[in-house]
Amino acid sequence: MPELRKDPVTGRWVIISTDRQKRPNDFRFERANTIGREQCPFCPGHEQMTPHEVMAYRENGTAPNAPGWDIRVVPNKFPALQVEGSFDRHGEGMFDRMNGIGAHEVIIETPNHDRTLAMMADTEIERVLSAYRERILDLKQDRRLKHILVFKNHGAAAGATLEHTHSQLIALPIVPDFVREEIDGAQRHFEVKERCVFCDIVHQDLADHRRVILENADVVALAPYAPRFAFETWLLPKRHGARFEEAPRHEYEALARILKQLLLRMDRALEHPAYNLIVHTSPFVGDTTDVYHWHVEILPKLTRVAGFEWGTGFYINPTSPEEAAQVLRNVRLS
Amino acid sequence: MPELRKDPVTGRWVIISTDRQKRPNDFRFERANTIGREQCPFCPGHEQMTPHEVMAYRENGTAPNAPGWDIRVVPNKFPALQVEGSFDRHGEGMFDRMNGIGAHEVIIETPNHDRTLAMMADTEIERVLSAYRERILDLKQDRRLKHILVFKNHGAAAGATLEHTHSQLIALPIVPDFVREEIDGAQRHFEVKERCVFCDIVHQDLADHRRVILENADVVALAPYAPRFAFETWLLPKRHGARFEEAPRHEYEALARILKQLLLRMDRALEHPAYNLIVHTSPFVGDTTDVYHWHVEILPKLTRVAGFEWGTGFYINPTSPEEAAQVLRNVRLS
Prior knowledge:
- Chain A is an alpha+beta fold.
- Helix content of chain A is 23%, strand content 23%.
- Chain A has helices at residues 122-139, 177-193, 197-208, 249-270, 321-329; strands spanning 3-6, 13-16, 55-58, 69-75, 90-92, 95-99, 103-108, 147-154, 166-172, 212-215, 219-222, 233-237, 275-280, 295-300, 315-317.
């Protein structure tokens, strides 16, 4: 059973998930990540290589765990958290722990082994976003869960262990402290201004325009003012909304269009970078309706993160957001 | 001039250091890091390849910036911060920035290109720690500086760009928020218990022993209860002390002995892992004397950090600290 442990100094929760060592590596560095198509557990015809699907968008008349799907969601074979069991919260002297209750799922975005998110049609990307939404709405009914992280690792340098394009979802019984910090910061701003800090950022940057990469009627892609990573990009709905899963359909459409454009431009300008995509949305606890603003962060992995960034949480970025925005704006996609 | 920018949501300061792009890479992924001995700027005889030294331990009668040194400290050739200039703090609408005033230095730990910290004698390692101390005491006199980060990247996977063993030091005009969080956490514990949280950890773990890797009279090496990384290790002085630079000499001796033992054991058990070493010590502002406890963290880089760890600050660790401590305790060095 995985365990959640709390650092007694910072209060940071960490998952200790020793079951994951059943993966084909022990303590050593890289995981095997050149699993070819023949062995790919995410390709059609290989449905038996994954745990049973929890959801799929599939052709009428096709059976679960068989080909015929467009998107397929399955539990992670090496889950960092488990759905069954009780918390068994207790102390070990001064330390605090609980069982690692939660969910860890994989969203297989397409049956096509060679397609990337950037190559998909807008409508296909929108369908991926809808799958995120549907899983969040379903898992949210489990009152034990307090937050859901939806993310995607693209490329080995970003931590992807299988090349077939997929996203992941981790549903947690705690609110991670990086989420808490963001909410607390937004709360502080709201207390002073009675406005959402993200709405203020969108408002100022749309007027200023130096950090705007792309926009359409509903969504804007910005290089944030204080980016941790070169070419870090935030995709924000222009309309205030605290929860990704409650966004209206036209915002998913708009987000899909901007996301595709952005990824194509990054592929062109940065030679197909590895990246992490992270959905930032409200936890299920606390009233964040006026305070928080859901968005998507894209973190390209262009340089190795060095000493004080790793482990310390302090960042040095060699590229200004104004320059990054200009580079991405000027890409010709012909 | 590098810039310090504050994220308006979280309050996190980030260095935007575009000068670093004068490095031999532009936006792209890896930096060249196979600079051989012939081109190594840290080897004796190549002193002219670095900026002028700010300190050296050298043979009597040898000239600065010439061979004859055991340890040499030089400004980083591609500094993330600059010593000269004024802060010029101002807002850009809702955003906050200031000039990147500070220091960024390199501590070349030995003239020998092929030696690693693990291969050095205890006394040589102690001398490296003394060099850290001396630079902190010197830079601390600059009242503009509020915190100094001393760290070491060993191996390309940990962000090292030159193989000749060296540490780095970044002196900052702000207290980074990860330091602030640690201090705040220790403060919370102190308010409730009137005891140092690190002293409590040392006390409990020395009694329990499952997470103790090594100890001597003055220093203990622990696998922390909630480690972010597999084989993460904290080296703590047993006696309470808030500031690394004020530790008595026998604690440096003890730390050097434990550090060498630990690195040798990691080299053996984990096949010469890349790692980051980070000195955690009090900022120069605020009274942390009773509350904080200096220590050294070693973060081996065994697995790629995946999506939600990157960028999100949430960690999944596949190895329990009890298991890691046992593996390292049981290494036979004979």
